[in-house]
Each structure stands twice: as C-alpha cells, then as structure tokens.
Design goal:
6-stranded mixed sheet
Length: about 625
C-alpha cells in the first residue's frame, strides 16, 4: 500500500530541499525516476541525495530497495505507517508552499535497512523437551548447502530463507532418539544407522504425525517425512532419515510402517520431497549456584571427549553459537583445575585444594562427601556399593603429556570401606568419551537477579560489588562499558554510571533541590526521598550506629574521576537515611545524598559500585 504524507501547511514543512539519507545497505528509488538516491550516490554525497531540490509542486513517491543480504526496516522520519510489500512513502506539496520556504531544508527522508538474517523458525514440534523444526521447510536443498551453514552441526546464518542461527543439524543418533520416543513398544534404534519396519498395524507411525509433524511427501496410501542428516556415509554420500506411515500395510507389496536412519543420499543432490532434520539447542537450566557462580550439572556432558568440547569451546570459552549434547553453551566456560579446586573447597572447608592439581581425603567415610550432593549436584556414575561420584573434564591439559587432560572427581563414600575424597588430576585421554565422565562448566551469576528498576533503567545492587577498587572496576568497564565478570557476576551489557547519572537516579526520588554537579550534597532533617529510595528495593550496605545515631547507607564507586585529582581519586555517590524513630534531626542527623571522593586504590566491604542497564 502507499503511505501518503501530505504537507499542506507552511508550518509542516521547512524546506524546498529534501535530502535523502540511507542507513545500512539499500537504495531509495523515486516513481518519477528523477529523484533516485543509490547507496553509492549517498556515500559519495551526490546532490541527488544531499540536496534533492523541490522546484514547483513536490509530488513524489519513494520506494526502498534493499541490497542483497539486507532488508528494509523502516522510514525513520516520515511514513511510519508505510506497509509491505513496497513500503511506499509519498509527498504531495503544492507549488505555493514550496515557494514560500524557498532556500530552506526539510528534515531528511531516512531509509533504514538492516541485515536480513532470515525468517524466524516458528513451525516446530517439541518432543521430550527438544524443539524440532518442521523438516519440510528445508526441502529442495543439497547436503552440501546445509553443510555450508551448519559446519560442525551447529548452524548460523540463513538456509532456505530461514534464520538457522542457534539450531543444530541432527545426527543419525539424534534422530534415532527422536524416533525412539515413538517406538517405546517396538524397541530402540541405534546407536548408529538403524531401521525398524513393521507390517502389522501399528500406532507409533500415526502417533508421529498426530504430534504435529508435516509430511514432506504424501499420497493416498501413506505419509512420510524424509530429511538429510549431518552424519556422512562417505566422501560423496550422507545419511538421511525417514519415517513412513502407510495407511494400508501390505507385506506382499512391501508397504509397511518404517523408521530408518540407514538410507543414504548423494551430497550434491536436491529433491523437493527431501528436507533437513534440525533441532534447537536447549538452554541449560539444570544448575547449582555456589559462591557467585552457576554450575551446570556435569552429567549433561557425558559421552563427550575433550577434543569435541574444544571445537565448540576453544580454550574453554564457548562461542555464541556453541552447542554441546544439544545444549546452548553461549556464556558458559569450561572450568580450569583451580576453578574446580575452589568449588570443592566450598564443601571441604578452607583452601585445602590447589593451586594446581591436588587431592583431599576425609578422615572417614561419613564426612564432607555428602555435602556436594546435598547441594543438588548429581552423580555421573551409577551409585555403587561404595557410594556416589561425580567425574568431569576440566579445561587444563597435562603439561607432561600432550594427549591427556585433567579431570575433577568428587566421591562420597557410603560405608567405612573408604574415605570421602576430592581430586583434580591428569588421567583422561583427549579423544576418550565415557558415559560416566561429564564436564565442569560454569557461568557468572546474572547481576540483574535482584536489580531495581527506576524509569527505563535497572540498577544493580551495589552491595554485590563490594571489595573492589576503582581500578578493579575500570578493568572490566573501560569507558564505562562493562564486559566479563566482577565478583563472580556477569557484568556484560551493564554500564558503570557516572556521578551525573547517579545524581539523576537520586533525583528520580524527589531530591530537592536536585543534584546537578559532582561533589554536591543535599541534606534534610526528615526527607521523603531517603526512605522512598530504600523502600523501592535498594539494599543497605551499612546499617548501624553512627555519631549522629542509627543510619542506613549506600556508598559506591562512580566511573567519574575527581576533577581535582583525576589520577588518584574518583567520585563516590552516597545516600544516607536516618530513620525518625532512632533520633537525628536537622544538621548532623539529616538524611543526606550526594557525592564525595575516594582514593582509587581503596576497597572494602561497605564500598560498592553503581551499575545500570536498559530495562527495555
């Protein structure tokens, strides 16, 4: 449809020059052909874009044309209601109005183009907690084309017009497990390529389609889904998986219900009835929080070798599209030996383990071994007569053996046949994968777990970031933009507030007169803003007696250096509340808000950090 933007009044137009601007990659074409603005013309500041003069009546319709790999997002200044498919933006300004404002410039017509990542995959089927894409949306493409987008099984970019970033191209055993969800009474497929065919009437094939799966091929006699798998058969061939539901089973004519991962297809061939099996990686929610870190259950990663983990998480740092055993690993880190030592020390007590590979043994079997399991960690080995054990890979290689890596093992003995133990040692081959060996992965705790929303921002609790010097914070938040961790909390995406931004936070609670500059203070014997600030959810960092009576207080670093000593000092915004029932009054006992100064090397348990991020 055409979006008509009519400017009939002088007050609604400020120019007879109407510049065209382009954000991203695309062109703006005009219906007349006289006002086209190509991307190259805009980038080289040609007059047809930067001037675009209107002489006489200004009657024109503009259409955005995205370049390959881009899509039109919106008109930024006019025609906000322009609609697909053409997103036309039209102007109809009479000649008299144009003459009246001759020599002036209208606000530019700005076309915004964004990267085209493809359509979201919304047509899915969830089976036993795993979300599968409908196979039929990927018909008509070759194995090689899929491999280009899903190298190493983990996909990124576009495929058949769909955004497959974060999706996993299923292997033979992935689909075996999917089919096994429907074959409970018939027996299991796998491991490896396998096939089940039944001539007797069955329910499992029809149940598959009743679950919502869309056939890639259908006829009067059967439904079937056929799709390519990531598992190669040879250089030129790869496996496919299919499931048939015949409406009239006839063993003499070879018509039977079938679930199979044994067939192969040439990698360069495409068929309009052959799709692709894909599933979305699951977020890791099965975790245990310990001492500022969130630990994934190690048993989620059994049957993986260290080398397999390194493909997705080189040097232990998982990429944004990393997937292991069907789990999305973005933001997770494979723990080092000392990371695991620190975890074990929480349960053993003191700093018994580390640094480096180490071991600890309890004085008896009924000691600290049960504590880790009581906290919620699951064993990776089946519980035997001796007790329970967790074994997981670490990120650290054995210095003396290039083929081996260190593991962390925690054992809770259930009898007096042995003592509870914890060990980090190098005993595991890099290519070895076992059903009883998982991996130790952790991530930082989300700093926003109990943040306070004020306006459009949410503020982290300053008491979570104590015992940090100004310099410590500056390393994680250069130029105020934070990445990585502080005190075990993930601060990526947070902003270290300036003294002026903290002033604005305080002023939002009604500070009068409002704080404006650095180093200012406002004190009031009985304010409304101090109790309101704390009742909104901010936690007290210090609470107790002072020379003026009982107080509640928050003191925390801002990112702003002192104007008097920028190298050695920084501003420390604070708010102090003296509850009325505890005495106080004007002067020394007043509620106070403002910013003092602190030496940048100082740190302590009552000095935090002011961080915020957008809440929208």
């Amino acid at each position: 449809m055409k979006n008509l933007f009519t400017l009939a009044l002088v007050t609604l137009i400020t120019a007879c020059s109407h510049p065209i601007e382009i954000e991203g990659e695309g062109d703006v074409m005009s219906a007349s052909g006289d006002r086209n603005c190509s991307l190259e013309d805009f980038q080289t500041a040609q007059d047809n874009c930067t001037k675009n003069y209107a002489i006489g009546a200004y009657e024109e319709t503009y259409t955005p044309i995205p370049r390959d790999g881009w899509k039109f997002d919106r008109w930024a200044t006019y025609c906000s209601t322009a609609t697909a498919p053409n997103y036309e933006c039209s102007f109809d300004v009479d000649a008299a109005t144009v003459r009246a404002v001759w020599g002036k410039t209208m606000p530019p017509l700005q076309a915004v183009f964004t990267v085209d990542n493809g359509l979201p995959i919304s047509n899915t089927v969830t089976v036993e907690g795993r979300e599968w894409a409908q196979v039929n949306i990927f018909t008509g493409i070759t194995w090689n084309e899929v491999d280009a987008a899903c190298s190493g099984e983990v996909c990124s970019g576009k495929l058949n017009g769909y955004n497959v970033t974060g999706w996993v191209w299923a292997s033979v055993d992935d689909v075996n497990n999917l089919f096994n969800s429907y074959l409970a009474e018939e027996g299991a497929l796998g491991p490896g390529p396998d096939r089940l065919s039944t001539f007797d009437p069955t329910t499992w094939a029809s149940e598959f389609y009743a679950d919502g799966w869309t056939p890639t091929e259908t006829s009067s006699s059967h439904n079937q889904v056929l799709g390519l798998l990531s598992t190669s058969h040879s250089t030129d061939y790869a496996y496919e998986a299919r499931i048939h539901d015949y409406f009239r089973n006839d063993p003499f004519n070879g018509s039977s219900d079938e679930a199979a991962t044994t067939y192969v297809k040439q990698k360069h061939e495409a068929e309009n009835w052959m799709g692709v099996w894909m599933y979305r990686a699951q977020a890791i929610t099965d975790t245990v929080s310990v001492a500022g870190r969130v630990w994934a259950q190690p048993d989620l990663f059994v049957d993986l070798s260290w080398n397999q983990i390194q493909v997705q998480c080189p040097s232990g740092i998982c990429s944004g599209i990393a997937v292991l055993n069907g789990y999305h690993m973005s933001g997770w880190k494979l723990a080092s030996v000392d990371d695991v030592n620190s975890l074990f020390n929480v349960y053993i007590g003191d700093d018994v383990m580390g640094p480096g590979p180490d071991s600890a043994y309890a004085s008896n079997w009924d000691s600290w071994g049960s504590l880790m399991f009581d906290e919620g960690f699951r064993l990776t080995e089946h519980e035997g007569s001796y007790g329970r054990a967790i074994e997981g890979l670490t990120a650290d290689e054995v210095a003396s053996d290039a083929n081996r890596v260190h593991v962390g093992v925690f054992v809770d003995y259930s009898s007096n046949e042995g003592s509870d133990s914890a060990r980090t040692y190098g005993s595991h081959g890099k290519d070895n994968a076992y059903g009883f060996t998982g991996a130790w992965f952790y991530r930082a705790v989300d700093l926003g777990v109990d943040a306070v929303r004020v306006g459009t921002n949410e503020w982290a609790q300053p008491d979570l970031l104590t015992n940090l010097s100004w310099h410590d914070v500056a390393e994680a938040c250069p130029d105020s933009v934070c990445t990585g961790t502080l005190n075990g909390f993930d601060v990526t995406g947070w902003t270290w507030a300036s003294v002026y931004q903290v002033n604005a936070l305080f002023n939002a609670y009604g500070v009068e007169p409002p704080l404006v500059g650095a180093g200012e203070f406002v004190s009031l014997g009985r304010s409304e803003w101090a109790p309101l600030f704390f009742s909104s959810g901010f936690r007290t960092m210090y609470e107790g007696g002072s020379e003026t009576g009982y107080v509640r207080e928050i003191v925390a670093w801002s990112s702003s250096s002192s104007v008097f000593d920028p190298e050695g000092a920084a501003y420390v915004p604070l708010i102090r509340y003296q509850p009325e029932e505890e005495g106080g009054g004007p002067g020394p006992g007043s509620d106070t808000v403002g910013s003092g100064e602190g030496l940048k090397w100082e740190k302590g348990p009552e000095l935090g950090v002011w961080l915020y991020r957008s809440a929208d």
